[in-house]
């Protein structure tokens, strides 16, 4: 199967976004938001800014802006698939892995699928694709929560949601991957795989993305399904998929496992040169394959 994603474009986006921190409500975050809008528009997507206000865990009122764009290819009565990644970073880090790596992959998917799904002559497909660039994830998944609640309130048929969360850190060194004791015997201790995390209603999504990643050469993949929306294992809830779980939707987090592998998590040292270009390229290709197949064939 031909590789379609381009690591040069992905890496250029990552480096631009991770040039400096992108904290909540900052001018730099707005610059990065405009950068994403420009790329999405150029690929044929119509981008909508969705403003919201929510209180963070400390009770501070925060203002955020999600970028949302939807393909024009939906068949009558079809469902929607949401692919998202958060743009904001913590104030102390440029956030190359967290989460510029994921946004760069989202933008690459947008470039490649835009011509197929956004043209006036786009072929009607079973599933409509919605891309979302979330805000205020670092303040408590506020952007994801706003969007999930909006989907539920509107009664939208969402066949699945995927949150891309830290995709670029890889290590071939034994012992580089850690897990809590209850999981340590179930997974490899070498941090060279991409992780899929789903909840109790996400079986089809887990199987679908596992197949897509396994179709990419040299991309190990491991999956974890948690009960009770991950409430008994809080690390599995640390991205914008968890509000979708709470609203009753099937959702996944695709991740390099964050602080269980990447020693630069939430530090000034989370910079592009710490990431693995080949690994990120393979992950991007897997995400593209999985997303395209859901849209064209439905979730099976």
From TrEMBL:
Name this protein carries in UniProt: Peptidase family M28
BP GO terms, sorted: proteolysis
Higher taxonomy: Bacteria, Pseudomonadati, Planctomycetota, Planctomycetia, Planctomycetales
Bilayer-spanning residue ranges: none
PANTHER family assigned to the protein according to its UniProt record, in alphabetical order: METALLOPEPTIDASE M28 FAMILY MEMBER, PEPTIDASE M28 DOMAIN-CONTAINING PROTEIN
Protein origin, superkingdom: Bacteria
Cleaved signal peptide residues: none
Family matches, as Gene3D superfamilies: Zn peptidases
InterPro entries, per the entry: M28_fam (IPR045175), Peptidase_M28 (IPR007484)
The Peptidase M28 domain, residue ranges: 67-289
GO MF, any single term: metalloexopeptidase activity
Organism: Fuerstiella marisgermanici
């Amino acid at each position: 199967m031909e590789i379609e994603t381009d690591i040069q474009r992905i890496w250029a986006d990552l480096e631009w976004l991770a040039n400096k921190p992108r904290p909540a409500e900052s001018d730099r975050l707005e610059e990065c938001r405009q950068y994403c809008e420009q790329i999405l528009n150029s690929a044929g997507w119509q981008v909508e800014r969705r403003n919201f206000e929510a209180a963070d865990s400390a009770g501070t009122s925060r203002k955020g802006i999600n970028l949302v764009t939807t393909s024009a290819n939906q068949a009558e009565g079809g469902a929607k698939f949401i692919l998202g990644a958060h743009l904001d970073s913590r104030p102390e880090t440029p956030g190359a892995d967290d989460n510029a790596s994921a946004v760069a992959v989202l933008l690459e998917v947008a470039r490649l699928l835009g011509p197929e799904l956004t043209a006036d002559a786009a072929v009607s497909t079973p599933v409509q694709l919605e891309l979302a660039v979330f805000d205020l994830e670092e303040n408590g998944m506020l952007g994801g929560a706003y969007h999930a609640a909006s989907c539920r309130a509107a009664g939208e048929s969402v066949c699945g949601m995927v949150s891309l969360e830290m995709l670029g850190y890889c290590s071939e060194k034994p012992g580089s991957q850690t897990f809590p004791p209850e999981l340590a015997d179930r997974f490899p201790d070498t941090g060279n795989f991409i992780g899929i995390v789903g909840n109790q209603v996400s079986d089809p999504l887990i199987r679908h993305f596992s197949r897509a990643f396994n179709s990419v050469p040299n991309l190990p993949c491991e999956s974890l399904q948690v009960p009770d929306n991950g409430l008994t294992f809080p690390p599995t809830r640390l991205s914008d998929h968890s509000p979708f779980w709470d609203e009753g939707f099937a959702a996944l987090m695709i991740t390099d496992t964050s602080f269980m592998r990447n020693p630069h998590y939430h530090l000034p040292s989370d910079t592009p040169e710490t990431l693995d270009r080949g690994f990120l390229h393979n992950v991007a290709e897997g995400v593209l394959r999985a997303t395209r197949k859901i849209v064209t064939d439905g979730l099976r």
